[in-house]
Amino acid sequence: MTNITNKLEDFTITLPISQAARTNAQQFAKNQPNLKKAEQVRLNTLAVSVVNDYLQMMEVPTDLIASDSWNPIMQLCTDVADLVVPSVGRLECRPVQLHEQVCAVPPETWEERVGYVIVQVDETNTEAKLLGFIKNVTTETIPLNQLQPIEALIDRLEQLRTSPVDALVNLSQWFIGQCQAGWQTLEDLLNSLEARPAYAFRSPVSTPDAVFNLKEAVTRRAKLIDLGIQIVNQPVMLIVEIAPEANGQTSVRLQLHSTGEQLYLPAGVELKVLDTSGAIFLEAQARSADNYLQLQFRGELEEQFSVQVSLDDMSITENFVI
Predict the structure, then answer these.
(1) Global pTM value
(2) Is residue 237 within 8 Å of residue 225, measured between CB atoms?
């Protein structure tokens, strides 16, 4: 019988597995209750790490920390190998081993995914192959001969990034409990940070509800922002609070907090609100001893704006619509 994976060689991409990826995989595996679960988490972590490295090479921003696959609780409770791509969604990175002809895809990953990348991890754990991509999954196994070339992944992400509907975080949906990938309740995010002492939340969260007219209607979501090597051990937390006002407008408050061992934000980190033309509407910059930055404004229904977090030559922008 012909090995299906042989037919994939024309469009597979082989990448090294970094030492950091192997270390993370082993560390996550050690926290599991049995050998079977440990091996599942180890392979999932390696697959996510390789896809993350590939997207970084292709200059596609990713957010490992916000991914469920990096959350100790989710690792324990589910079989998940997702990678958050900001302003796009969650990409599932499913591992297969040498000579396997199909890839297992658990039902809990069939929804809230923008696509699936299949990663073949070699027996030495030193390199992996990106075998291909598939947009949707509705069965528990994918025959490998049904995969599209990995270039289809980049096309898919580019399509989603340039689509106004998919690229915008819709704040009005937060009022009814719908939330885009990467955004969590503040409580859930703080709980996940507590499980990782290196990222434990140090600075106090100042969120006085008196700022809003209708404090009982305040909706609050949070997200970790990693600006790269300058603060790789100290991602910052962006908190967005919204509340409806009697005149039909929506109050929006932004806060940027430090995480990790440092009480203060990195000096020079900036928080900006941009209008649809890219012009700066509001901005704040951290000094040497700022616990957090805060900006507040009001907007109309369907009004669009962007929030940019930057440090030196690194920046991440989130696009919103009210």
Answers:
(1) 0.53
(2) yes
